[in-house]
């Protein structure tokens, strides 16, 4: 069982990914982002992304009701169905699902976030963000056993039936845990993990858990979050995480060959 | 097997529908529209709906690439996942799918449409509209047998992997044919089929096929299309079509009781 997480960058080569997936022998679940498309549609709709700066200095998305609607339209709607269509053109019977469908990604909403605004700290109670706590594995197996490729994205859903935004990399960690997947591929717009985020030739070919810990100390922003999710995935029993370049031909095959960055569990 | 088609009007009472569905004994597939939401989002995005006027006087949607994107966002994204969430709050394990997922609604794109523009007739070749030709019944049965309620909407998809807009009422007819469903419920924002579209007290309690034919002669616009789809469904083997008011409590139960309009096959 392989989990393939594909970032939402504008440069991701979905045709190459589809071609690559169609040649894979093992069963596979795809999880995708849609960040670039979200930004483009937000711009068209005149919606600006709001963020929350926590007292500890963490920045996160403020998913107000308008942002949640937009996210649901773009991720579960446009991006997901475009991907299903591309995969179909390469002969892959894909089924696109959000975390709400069959409570695939069941999670908890963060009831309160602290937000630093100038000299004040505000309490934000209406942000539809949270974390995935469990995955409906039986629905995934049902589809996989029938030969379908599940293509998953946000939003997730709570016990109360609220749609929530969640970090897809952390959702992948819980998905790997619940599916018992030992290998995860993560594709984004870089040749792998970079020592210097501004230099594509500074790729780090492999890391063990201790090296990951050191790397985490220097990482920032989006990449820091990604590496925290990687750490979580390893703690959940994943053995190898293959990061690779989603802009190239054969991105999955090449990542699995170690041409990006391989992060290995010490276990 | 019951098919429940729910219109996309703003007044549709989804809580009442969910409550009603949760009490149904027989397996069921839901198909939904999202017209009001589509209009609201189009307005926000500054997109105006384009239509094609055929030489024979028929008006239809001109689904240019922008309209197709919007439709995919609103129908398969926002509307579909909101419905899945409402159903979940009523204890129904719903799985929302577009016609692209697993090629659920496989169709053909209309390659050329004739459009009357002033004194000229133009050929339109880029409209992503078409008709459903077959339904992936095995995917639906897989989900139904596992206890899930499939919640379906547009877009459909072609053999070539193009997303297309289709008339959902006609998609329901093909769905009924392929599932072998004998009964279809259609809910919208009226107490049933009205003799006079402006008078809600002019409900027609029942029609046989010949009466439907007469009714069709007078019907116009949206309702005419709906009745043509009903006629198609009857020709495909559906025995009874129950039209009813989606704004009320227990809308499905009441429609099945004959409180709206029942259209019966002569067969």
Describe it:
The structure is a homodimer of 267-residue chains. Chain A has 267 residues and is α/β, with parallel strands linked by helices. The mean pLDDT of chain A is 95. The two termini of chain A are 19 Å apart. The first copy, chain A, has one domain (2-264): Acetylglutamate kinase-like (Carbamate kinase, 3-Layer(aba) Sandwich). In chain A, helix 1 packs across helix 3 (65-89) and helix 5 (168-179) runs parallel beside helix 7 (221-235). Chain A is globular, with a radius of gyration of 18 Å. The first copy, chain A, is built from 8 helices and 16 strands. Chain A has an 8-stranded mixed sheet, sandwiched between helices.
What are the key terms here?
36% helix, homodimer, 267 residues, Carbamate kinase, alpha/beta
């Amino acid at each position: 069982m392989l989990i393939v997480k594909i970032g939402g960058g504008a440069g991701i080569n979905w045709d190459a990914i589809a071609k690559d997936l169609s040649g894979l022998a093992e069963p596979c679940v795809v999880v995708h982002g849609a960040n670039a498309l979200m930004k483009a549609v937000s711009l068209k709709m005149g919606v600006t992304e709001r963020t929350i700066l926590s007292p500890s200095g963490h920045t996160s998305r403020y998913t107000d009701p308008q942002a949640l609607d937009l996210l649901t339209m773009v991720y579960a709607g446009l991006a997901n169905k475009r991907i299903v269509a591309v995969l179909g053109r390469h002969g892959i019977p894909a089924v696109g699902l959000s975390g709400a469908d069959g409570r695939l990604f069941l999670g908890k909403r963060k009831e309160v976030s602290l937000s630093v605004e100038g000299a004040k700290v505000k309490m934000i109670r209406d942000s539809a963000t949270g974390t995935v706590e469990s995955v409906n594995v039986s629905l995934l197996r049902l589809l996989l056993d029938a030969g379908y490729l599940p293509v998953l994205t946000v939003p997730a859903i709570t016990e109360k039936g609220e749609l929530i935004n969640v970090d897809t990399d952390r959702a992948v960690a819980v998905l790997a845990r619940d599916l018992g997947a030992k290998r995860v591929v993560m594709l984004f717009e870089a040749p792998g993990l970079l020592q210097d985020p501004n230099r594509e030739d500074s790729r780090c070919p492999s890391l063990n858990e201790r090296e990951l810990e050191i790397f985490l100390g220097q990482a920032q922003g989006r990449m820091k979050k990604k590496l925290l999710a990687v750490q979580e995935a390893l703690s959940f029993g994943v053995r190898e995480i293959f990061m690779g370049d989603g802009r190239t031909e054969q991105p999955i095959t090449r990542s699995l060959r170690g041409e990006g960055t391989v992060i290995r569990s010490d276990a």
